[in-house]
Amino acid sequence: MSDVQLHIAGHSPALGGQGTAGDYFALLKPRVMSLVIFTAFVGIIAAPEALHPLLALVALLAIAMGAGASGALNMWYDADIDAKMKRTASRPVPRGAILPREALGFGASLAVGSVIALGLMVNLIAGALLAFTIFFYVVIYTMWLKRWTPHNIVIGGAAGALPPMIGWAAVTGTIDLGSISLFLIIFMWTPPHFWALALFTENDYAAAGVPMLPNVAGPDETRKQILIYTLVLLPLTFLPALLGVSGILYVTGVALLSAVFLYYAVNVYRIREGAAADRACKKLFGFSILWLFLVFALIPIERLLGVASFPSVLL
Questions:
Q1: What is the pTM of this model?
Q2: 33 and 131 in one domain?
Q3: I need a labelling partner for 141 at 20 to 30 A (CA). Which of 76, 154, 213, 240 fits?
Q4: Which long-range contacts (CB under 8 A, 24 or more apart) does 130-136 make?
Q5: Do 164 and 232 reside in the same domain of the chain?
């Protein structure tokens, strides 16, 4: 978005260099970054080999930089959309605190630096995966899918699902079924998570012209798809145990957490009118974040407690 466009949108453009440290930190999408760092950390812990602590720290810092780069480049390109949505209008670029060209330069610098650091200091496979993740999120999702198809979240969710694979590859230098199982959990979690959000922010997306599923197929079809994806997701959460990545504590915890997830998804499908429907969507959205964190946290907790992983039955 140009400075002129920002002015037309009702936002006074900055003169350049006016953004605070807090504004630049906001460009990184810190809440998303924290989830990326955590799932990448779990990938490192879950891998069948060990990585030197210093290299593990380098890997996590590079992955964090890559996630921040993706966030900054997303805010650069999506400034026109963000300016039209209540949820995002206060972001640094549409607010005029940071110019689009500044966000672009900041994000591009972080992207290049993160990939070089991970590739040269850890291994090339991990670096290549990080490069692909940034490319997929910025080019495939942000520039293409988000504006053109209601399946944007389904396909675009691959970018958010790759961090545990990057962490695993940082340790082993390979991509195998164990890391793919972690990828699949996040990949299938993303649609019900974001569609729950889209149901109670439907007007925002409509105002911005973003073809989210509720705006294209309607709320009832979205509720149906949330339930379908949930029913596919929950069995997939047991894959790490079947592949020898996790043990009995993980299986027990996942079973309990998934029962609650299913309860909230059924409520979203069942309750369709009034304030109660919005509350059901908000509860699923909020719990889905906690669910993903706890599911992935069970793996390092098992390692810390010395709980043995099951022998693989799929290899």
A1: 0.92
A2: yes
A3: 240
A4: 130/62, 130/63, 130/66, 130/166, 132/162, 133/66, 133/70, 133/159, 133/162, 133/163, 133/166, 134/66, 134/69, 134/70, 134/73, 136/162
A5: no
